[in-house]
Every structure is written in structure tokens, then in C-alpha cells.
Amino acid sequence: MKAALFIPCYVDAVFPEVGVATLELLERFGVEVDYPLNQTCCGQPMANSGCHADAAAAEALFVKNFAGYDYIVGPSGSCVHHVREQLTAIPQTPETTKVRRSTYELVEFLHDVLEVDAFPWAEFPHTVGLHNGCASLRALRTAKMSEIDEPHFSKPLDLLTKVKGIKFVTPERPDECCGFGGTFSVFEEPVSAKMGYDKVNDHHKAGAEYIVSADMSCIMHQQGCAERLGLPIKFIHIAQILNGARA
Amino acid sequence: MKRIDHAEASSRFIKAKDHIDFHDKRLWDLRKKRDRVSEQLPEWEELRSLASAIKEHALTHLGDYLEEFERNAIRNGAKVHWAKDAAEHNQIVFDIMSARNARTLVKAKSMLTDECDMRPFLENRGIDVMETDLGERIQQLDDEPPSHIVVPAVHKLRTDVARVFAQTIGTDPKNSDVHYLAESQRQHTRPYFLKADAGMTGANFAVAETGTVVVCTNEGNADLSVNLPKLYIASIGIEKIIPRVEDVGVFVRMLSRSALGSPITQLTSHFRAPREGTEMHIVLVDNGRSERLGMADFWYSLKCIRCGACMNTCPVYRRSGGLSYGATYSGPIGVIIDPTFNLRKYSSLPFASTLNGSCTSVCPVRINIHEQIYKWRQIIAERHQLPFVKQEAMRVAGKILGSPKLYRAAVETAGASLEHLPRFMMYTRLNAWGRQREVPAAPQSTFRQWYLKNRSKR
Hints:
The complex is a heterodimer of chains A (about 250) and B (about 450). Chain A is of the alpha/beta class and about 250 residues long. In chain A, about 50% of the residues lie in helices and about 10% in strands. The longest helix of chain A has 18 residues, at about 190-205. With about 450 residues, chain B is α/β, with parallel strands linked by helices. Chain B folds into 3 domains: about 1-15 and about 25-30 and about 295-385, Fumarate Reductase Iron-sulfur Protein, Chain B, domain 2 (Orthogonal Bundle); about 40-285, Rossmann fold; about 390-455, no CATH class. Chain B has 22 helices and 10 strands. Chain B has helices spanning about 5-15, 15-40, 45-60, 60-75, 85-100, 110-115, 120-125, 135-140, 160-170, 180-195, 220-225, 245-260, 290-295, 310-315, 315-320, 330-340, 360, 370-380, 390-400, 405-410, 435, 445-455; strands at about 80-85, 105, 130, 200, 205, 210-215, 230-235, 240, 265-270, 280-285. Chain B is globular, with a radius of gyration of 25 Å. The relative contact order of chain B is 0.13.
């Protein structure tokens, strides 16, 4: 199977290790991975700010880079959500709609497409709290949300429970938003930071050594909050644990 | 008109630590109770769809149902008035009262009369207006608007209420016992009920086939307001119409469960006709609703039954307080309604959201709240109502992210030093990121650089 690797701008520039883990993980399952070298961003930061016209160039570039692939996989729920549900600043040509349809968030791809049943190399002897980003949870629907009375399901937990030695704790408000929200994090800084503080304190009280997430942007924000508060809590992307990181 | 600065107002709210922690916890408790009681109804999601369908039907046949309501209300003996906006509404209420020489008005809770700014209008014309809902009364005595559509004084601690009551109705300032305060207010209010010339309520529902006004309350104050004075006025937004009396059952099952996590309000009163020797007037108010109904992306907001569930679940609302929105309607539902009143004044409100979507999932009438918030942002940007810094940041970011060359120049010059993380990636607004958060350490290389070194076959 061939897939294109979509590394969002902030992962490329700030968290390259998450890109590396995603690539290596896909390769472990025999996926032939292409990384289109001219990729930048999906257009989400501009579009979420209402600036559709400013998002158009990034969106057009995204489609150009990823046209022709049946699977486009990225380690970020909110970026994948943008591509799939909101990449509308450019004409919806057949090429555009195919790219949008073919884009998967990493957890979905492992769970639903590859149907992975084991990660024999993975062992994570730590207590973790899982953070589902809101786009993954409520838009991509990778787990049950607390607002809806529906049977329990969690794609990220299905994957993580296959890792040796890992233990889970659940905070009091497991699926409350952490307050990142893209440009919200700086234009509504007081509420954003308060939400982040509450989130990391909640995980800390539950006894989490690590917060793990499929959304690195939430993590970037929470990590910034935890470090400022001086909390002894660490952060890791789900791809890194599934790829065999021990710490 | 000055723009509301939600971020600035929220920072003041957050500084009062005991207040914000109480506020957040109190409303989160309501959200949890809502989860528990809704889960007891296996048909909850079906009820949401049904409630939404009834409202969409009523709104798409609004003219017919309004006329049916009017015919039946007149047949019942009520007088029906039509107000195209807030000014007309206030004038109608004043005219009804002054024609009967009515000088005192006891009123139950109504967001519509707040929306119309009715109280100051009447007070300036010599009418004494008494809010009889406990929370509304607290807010009236403190000269503050309600901060929540269901629990108007939820941002106050009981010690705040003790202070307000001590200054206004003469309670013991040191006694903040809840029962003492509630009983004091009750004793203070009773005489007003007995001497009031007129009573007023809003409406939760107006039933077309019967011409009845349905009011759901917990304190009994609405029933006293209606049944003691000789004159009763109901102010009703035209979107409150529902077709049949059996539809009330659907909404009554959802309203209090969504609002407070209780199965039903203490009282569900159907006001149909004036008592003998008294008058009942109904004022049907548009005030922008028809215009909203014509907005393809936003008319769904008219389905709202004002339960406040979206506010209770909203992590931003819980941490900024209703007053920070500077509008009659706050929280997620306010964010999508307020810009229809004044786009420029309320242009910051659709950005007071992380687009997390929890509001949409709790809404009992399935309003796609967070999708409408997203849409409002586009309209605000298109109409050039974004703050200049944000507009510029997005223009620059769009240019850089639309070009592989410019993008690489921006991120690959990032060294190992924190200061050199590309500014556009941190959306720096006077370095707001770093005020309460650490900035992530810059890595040795980008992913792309790593890839070229380790994988590229090209």
C-alpha cells in the first residue's frame, strides 16, 4: 500500500520527532510512504480566523501536493478535520474532493484502514492520561463523547491498550477542551491559558505521568502551561508511543 | 458603537479566583446533571431530532402559525399586539399600562424584555418595575444585566448577594445564609405582588392551535405576577410559536433536563384567557427575527428554547462569565445571535470560542452552533471587522504558507534558540503566547530537513 505523509507546518517546524515517529510507524506496517517535499500547511489557521481568501493559496498547494494519492495520512486531528470538512476556500474540483476524501488522521488510518492488531515493539511503562483533541473527538468521531449517550468506543485507546506496560488514568473532565483553539490561544489568551491550566491540573491530580494525544497542537499548549506551572508532567504524541518510544 | 473586547473582560473575570472557580464548577455540575438525566431517557437523541423538526416546521410556516395563534388568542379573550422592534414593544407596553393608569409592574423573567431594554424605558416614564425571579431581582438590585439566561446571578457568590441585599433591602450584611437571603427577598417582594397594577411574563412556548402562553418556572413568581394584578401582559418573541399543544410535551421533557438537569420545572403554566374582570395582552415581537429567518446560514438559531445548556457546557463561557460578552445573550448561543443585532459591536464574540463543538452536541433542538460560529468568522473577515493585527497576521501567514519557498525560508532559518521560532507560527500578538505559557524549544532541524537527510530517494 502506498500513502502520502502529511506533516502539518507546526509539526514540521516544532515537533519533527512526531513526523519521524509517524513515518517509521507506517513503514513498520509495510506502507510505502511518500513525503511530498513542497507541502506547507492545510490552510486551517487562516480559515479558522475567518480569512478564507488568505487560506486559498495554502489549500490549493495542499491539493496540488497530494493529488494522485489514495491515502493521505497526517498525525494531527484538527488539520485532517480542516482538509476533510472545511477545505472550501478553493473551487471544489474532482481533484480537490478526492484529496479531501482520501485524507486520514493517523489513529483512524491505523485503526480503520490498516486494522492494526499489535505493536510488538511498543512498550511504555508509564501512567498516562489520554487527551482527545476536540476535532478528533467531536468531528472525526474517534471516540465516544460525554455529551452523547452512545456505546463506549475509543480508537486511540484501542491502539494504546496494545502497548505493553502502559497504564491509564482518567481525569475528572476527560473530554473538556484544553483551550488551544488555534489563534484563540493568543487572541483570547486569558481564557485559553486558564483552560490549559485547568486541563493539566486535572490530569496531574488523576496521577498522569504523561499526557498522550493524537493532536500535537493541544500538546504544545498544554506543555507550555504545565511548564509554566512547574508541574512534573510530560507530553508525548501517540505516534511516538506506538512506534516504540519508552519515554 | 464601541466593540466589545471579550478577551479583556474575561481577564478581569479570571482574576477573581474564588469567583471563577465557583462559576466554572457550578455550571459544570449542571452539565453533569444534564448528562445524567438525559441518559435516563433512551429516546433522548430521538427527542432532540423531533424537537428540532417541530421547530424547523414552525419556523418555515411562521406566518401561518402566528396568524392562527392570534385568532385563537383573540377568541380566548386576549388582546394581541404586534411589535416590529424593541421601541415599538416598549411603547406598546407603556401605552397599555398608562391607558389604565397602571404605575407598578411585577414581572417574571424574560430575556426578550432585556433584549428590548424595557425596564429603563418604563422606569424613565414613572413606572415602577419589580423583577420577581430571585436571580433577576438580585441583578436588578445590583444594577447589572443577567449573566446567564437561566441562572441570571450565577456569577455571584452568596456573600456578594448578602452585600447587595444589605445595601438595598436592608438584610444583615454579615449573614450570607442562603435560606435567610431567599426568605428576606421573598418577604420583601410579597407586598409588591399584592399592590401591583400589572403583571408580566415572557413565554417559553406560544401554542398556535390553542392561543395559549406556556411559561415554565421554578419559583411560582410568574403565576403570582399573572394571577394577582388586574392586567397581564405577555411579551413573546415570534420564534416561540409551536403548532400544537401536544408539541409542548416534547419540549417540556427536554427544557429543564437540558437547563438544570431536573426532569421538569416546578411549574408549567398555560395562560389561556384573562380571569373575569381582568385583561390579558399579548405582544408579539419581531425585533430582527424575520431578518434572521432570511439568513440561509443562521436561521437555525431561531430554534433556540433558551435552556442555557450550551452555556453550561462551554469551557469559554464558564471561564469568562456572561457579562464579558457585553450583550443580552452570552455564551455559544449569544455568539451566533448577537452579531445579527450589531455586527461591528459584537465582532469579537465569534472568536470567543475554540470551536470545540460541545455546545452543538448538548443543544436539545440540534442547532449547529459551532458551525455557525465558524461561518460568522468568515462574514466578519469579509466585512473587514477583524482587528488590524489579526488581519495582517493572517495575510502574512497565508502568503508564507501558500508558497513552499517562503515557508521554508521562514522555518528553516529557525536556529536552536527560542526567539527564532518563526513568529507567524506563534501568531504573536505582543507575544501573548508566552504571557502564561512556555514557548516550545526549537528543534535542531525541521522534519523535512531530517527526511532529506535520512530517506529521500530524490
